[in-house]
Automatic annotation (TrEMBL):
Main location: membrane
Domain of life where this protein originates: Eukaryota
Classification via Pfam families: 7tm_1
Name recorded for this polypeptide: G protein-coupled receptor 82
Keywords: Membrane, Transmembrane, Transmembrane helix
GO cellular component: membrane
The G-protein coupled receptors family 1 profile domain, residue ranges: 43-338
One GO MF term: G protein-coupled receptor activity
Matches recorded under InterPro entries: GPCR_Rhodpsn (IPR000276), GPCR_Rhodpsn_7TM (IPR017452), GPR82 (IPR042804)
Keyword Zinc: no
Length: 398
């Protein structure tokens, strides 16, 4: 369901290729998408309930995560249709209602969710980084405190400013992704399938034209992939700079508190970065490789074969769809990351689920990674020192 197909005048347009899915498409993808629906939907509904009804002091960071949960909730609703598409796509006709729903409705939601999450979390990481370097003191001040205007630091603390950022992210994602996906669904998938299959036998939903798309989708894919790597590297740079800043800050804080803070922040960053890399990075690495393979391959029909044959990119298409599944899995893991890394969200969730006090304390000890009970007065002192860092870490789930 992504556009990366050679131009319409190539030799492939004369061929009657069809996709030959294996068990990975027919059974694995539908099963995982069905499981994703059962986990992502209740998880994001619970997260939204906690953000909107249980947290009394609503901070900018909660605003970002609330909008992220809304985006993930929309994605989770589409997963049953994706499961049906991979299981029954070879049976559906191209003009069937369910196929048209996948092309015109599900595809835009999928891509909008990915890039809303990308921009939202990148902004959260950068804003938390800016807040951290302003509110902590290292052996020497960070150069960013002089480069960024003071109004920017003041705006980071305002919920109204966070709301403007979220609305802007939604408008950018929808405005850039939806026109491309609509053009893909109306022109590249529908028209190419009709043109390439005059016999009418291959007018099924799961087809090369639907899975590969056309030239506009190809160009958009290259642009969006470049955009992803720019933001990905920006987040990495923020993480590295924060770690350096924390190490310099150790000279001005108690040794035990600083070591505990550094260990916790480093652990959180590693966990978050692993999830970010596992979920989104493989998909965006494979996309340009897939485009180049399609562009450089000129398909030719065998003169002895008049019936349709398996498309040579059937295996690559299955790999592409499996990597896209990894990107979608993030919608299921995000609520877990909120719970583990955000103390306010964790406490309110435990209250909502009516856990007893003993289990709550045990779980908080596990999530903080201290291995022993910490006195309440010491926790309050540490919270004051690390509030900006913890907010930065828990929000950068990707």
């Amino acid at each position: 369901m992504e556009g990366t197909f050679p131009s319409e005048n190539t030799s492939s347009t004369a061929c009657n290729f069809s996709l030959c899915p294996t068990a990975a498409t027919l059974y694995f993808l539908p099963s995982v998408y069905a499981l994703l629906f059962l986990t992502a939907l209740p998880g994001n509904v619970l997260a939204l309930w906690v953000f909107l009804r249980c947290i009394s002091s609503f901070s900018p960071i909660h605003m970002y995560l609330c909008h992220l949960s809304i985006s993930n909730l929309l994605l989770s609703i589409t997963t049953p249709f994706l499961a049906a598409y991979y299981a029954k796509g070879l049976v559906w006709g191209l003009n069937d209602v369910l196929c048209q729903l996948v092309l015109h409705g599900i595809t835009p939601v999928l891509h909008v969710n990915i890039y809303i999450s990308l921009m939202m979390l990148t902004w959260v990481a950068v804003s938390r980084f800016a807040s951290l370097i302003q509110n902590t003191h290292a052996s020497r001040p960070s150069a960013c405190t002089t480069l960024l205007p003071h109004a920017f630091f003041a705006s980071l603390k305002k919920v109204s400013f966070a709301n403007v950022v979220c609305i802007t992210v939604w408008l950018m994602s929808v405005g850039c992704i939806v026109p491309v996906t609509v053009y893909y669904a109306v022109h590249e998938a529908m028209n190419q399938t009709t043109k390439n299959d005059k016999s009418g036998r291959g007018k099924v939903c799961y087809s090369p034209a639907v899975e590969l798309g056309g030239s506009l989708s190809q160009t958009a894919t290259v642009v969006i992939t470049t955009f992803f790597f720019v933001l990905y590297l920006l987040v990495l740079l923020s993480y590295i700079t924060v770690l350096r800043h924390i190490r310099r800050s150790r000279r001005n804080t108690p040794v035990t508190t600083s070591q505990r803070l550094l260990r916790r922040v480093f652990r959180n960053i590693v966990v978050i970065q692993v999830i970010l890399s596992v979920c989104l990075l493989p998909h965006h690495i494979f996309k340009p490789i897939f485009i180049s393979l399609v562009q450089e391959t000129h398909l030719q029909c065998s003169p002895t074969k008049e019936t349709s044959s398996c498309h040579p990119f059937s295996g690559f298409i299955e790999l592409k769809n499996c990597l896209f599944l990894l990107a979608a899995l993030r919608s299921s893991t995000d609520p877990i990351m909120y719970f583990v890394l955000d103390r306010t969200f964790r406490n309110e969730t435990l209250k909502l689920l009516r856990w007893n006090q003993k289990n709550s304390i045990t779980l908080q000890m596990f999530c903080s990674g201290t291995g022993s009970a910490t006195l309440k007065s010491e926790q309050q002192k540490e919270e004051t020192a690390v509030s900006g860092t913890v907010e930065f870490s828990h929000a950068s789930v990707m």
